[in-house]
Amino acid sequence: MSGELGPETAVHGCMQAVREFGSKVILVGDPEVIHDLLYRFPIDSDHCDVAESFEVIGMNEMPARAVRSKKNASVMVAARMVKEGRAVGFFSPGNTGATMAAALWEMGRIKGVERPAIATQIPREEGVTVLMDSGANVDCKAEWLVQFGIMGATFSREILGITKPRVGLLSNGEESKKGDFVTLAAHRELLRTSLNFVGNIEGRDIYGGERSVDVLVCDGFIGNIVLKATEGLARTIFELMKKEIHKTALGRTGAMMLRPTFQMIKDRMDYAEYGGAPLLGVQGNCIIGHGSSNAKAFKNAVRAVEEFGRRKLDTHLTNDIRDMS
Amino acid sequence: MSGELGPETAVHGCMQAVREFGSKVILVGDPEVIHDLLYRFPIDSDHCDVAESFEVIGMNEMPARAVRSKKNASVMVAARMVKEGRAVGFFSPGNTGATMAAALWEMGRIKGVERPAIATQIPREEGVTVLMDSGANVDCKAEWLVQFGIMGATFSREILGITKPRVGLLSNGEESKKGDFVTLAAHRELLRTSLNFVGNIEGRDIYGGERSVDVLVCDGFIGNIVLKATEGLARTIFELMKKEIHKTALGRTGAMMLRPTFQMIKDRMDYAEYGGAPLLGVQGNCIIGHGSSNAKAFKNAVRAVEEFGRRKLDTHLTNDIRDMS
Q1: Is residue A54 in a domain?
Q2: CA dist B45 to A163, B30, B48, B49, Å?
Q3: pTM
Q4: CB pairs under 8 A between A and B
Q5: What is the mean pLDDT of residues B220-226?
Q6: In this complex, which of A138, A229, A253 lies closest to B179 when CB atoms are compared?
Q7: Is omega for the bond preceding A133 within 30 degrees of 0, making it cis?
Q8: Is residue B130 located within the same domain as residue B271?
Q9: pLDDT confidence of B271, banded at 50, 70, 90?
Q10: Where are the beta strands (DSSP E) in A17-156?
Q11: Are residues A155 and A63 in the same domain?
């Protein structure tokens, strides 16, 4: 019921997952609205269930207050179904803070995890970098950062198939003596783990280059700012191009010829490809979507949640946190 | 004598400044090397002096140790000439830490300034955002961030001609309650100043949009990471395009037609346009260059230093820090 594009987009995307991947989904929200939309999709009813919820947490509500006062909001009902074992995980394109709060409140943390963190998958020229944390925690302690590295490596190994993920620490220089107080402490502690820790990584190496890593560790405050800054810059570059290109006939012709190239680059940077960003460290699976998640994002999120369940991601996280923390 | 492209580039750029702007420069370094290069440029000797220095601080030397042990390194001699009133300011494309240390050690801080900070000018679609701090200080206190805002506003007003610069605070959300501990405290204190403080700015608004600001305040750790991340992404986008474009004849033709557009976008993002990033808060003027500064960067840096001197930037900084801190 949340997300900027409304329930039609959600239903549409989920039904695509049912058709393409044989997924089984439970749609949480106003049954009347949902059934009205489902009517258009002739699918096996075995693959789609509806769970009733009449409350929605708005994008601008304060998360902590909202989850306390709206116990039956759609995101809370979804999280509870995971806790009760009726679903393997849930996806929400709504209020990020409320989604995290619902997952924490209802599903709880994995034993030993100090702070769950958001794992964003950043496409590189070859492969993907998992940014941990992308925004769940500000003012992190060094030990939390170490756990972000452990959980990111588990995700990279179990879901992305990287045998020995390279783990890096985002800092203002490659040298081990560069960094703020918390980063310096995290560096020392990461060296003591059995992770494949390769040291500090600079901002310029996030998107490619020889020093790129499979897992990049940082405070959620910085992670959020870096992600939004780079998204903003990419958007600005494409808009500038569009504008310049349309100024001349030659430009328009050139642009037409380059359309496949532009499309390829846009596809690469399309976050809908991943559905959303998993919250790692909670019991069960939770994927946090962009507010503007489209049908493709819903489809891929459903597939991702099912895959996390099939590969027992949370069991692996539990074991790795127990063995390495 | 420092910088990745060597003294030839430096001399070439400085002589361009002499010719185009009538600048007066002092070249600091090995006199024999410099005179050998100067020989090629028939200019009025009144506009160019040489100051002797036989030591250079390398890119990988530890700044604090280097400035203590190499008192006569070129960067130290240059800073000392500013202190002694023989130059209005200096530019160095060498070791950033050593340049800062030389400026602090020889020229000293402006009275009342807790920490000088690096001001990077980020081109927006319309205008420029001054990022304070871009990397001089990690682990900042809230009061330092407030001073970064004050000094950035002085720079924007006196050098960029913005009457009432909009000052924003980089954070993980627009709401005043978003931010890490230091950012939250700085937010409260910025509200108490007479600055035109517009509140928190998200990463996505750095490069344009309605919420863009003239001065953007952040910790130097974050500033460094954000700048390098966006530079890295821009480079990646252009490289991807180049590669894709050359795969097909159609792509190559399209690219040829779009060459003016690509060039325009590259020009906009060309840091050489500004020469380098001023270190604000020291007595006199200091501009820190990219290690790979080309002749254009040298030329523009010379012009910028002279302009800072002509407009009495450090006097304005002194007054604003006294009145607003």
Answers
A1: yes
A2: 65, 18, 5, 7
A3: 0.92
A4: 175
A5: 96
A6: A138
A7: yes
A8: yes
A9: low
A10: 25-29, 48-52, 89-92, 117-123, 128-132
A11: no
Task: Give this complex's ipTM.
Answer: 0.91
* Residues A238-280 pLDDT 10s: 787 777 777 777 777 777 777 777 776 677 667 677 889 999 9
Residue A317 lies in a domain: no
Local confidence band at B269 (pLDDT 50, 70, 90 cut-offs): low
pLDDT band at A31 (very low <50, low <70, confident <90, very high): very high
Q: In this structure, are A78 and A148 located in the same domain?
A: no
**Number of domains, chain A:** 2
**pLDDT of the residue at A68:** 92
- B134 shares a domain with B268: yes
Q: For chain B, say whether A172 makes contact (Cβ under 8 Å).
A: yes
Q: Averaged over A200-210, what is the pLDDT?
A: 88
Contact call for residues B83 and B108 (beta carbons, < 8 A): yes
Question: How many other CB atoms are there within 10 angstroms of residue B318's CB atom?
Answer: 18
Confidence of residue B190 (pLDDT cuts 50, 70, 90): very high
B130 and B234 fall within a common domain = yes
> Which range of residues forms the domain containing residue B204?
120-276
The answer on A268 and A135 residing in a single domain is: yes
Mean pLDDT of A59-88: 94
What CATH number should be reported for the domain holding residue B313?
3.40.718.10
Question: What per-residue confidence (pLDDT) applies to B108?
Answer: 97
A interface mutation test: which of B169, B257, B269, B270 has the most A CBs within 10 A? B257
Lowest mean pLDDT among A38-42, A176-180, B193-197: A38-42
CA distance A190 to chain B (A): 20
Residues B139 and B195 placed together within one structural domain of the fold: yes
Tell me the percentage of chain A whose pLDDT exceeds 90: 73
Same structural domain, A89 and A170: no
| Cβ neighbours of A271 in B, within 8 Å | none
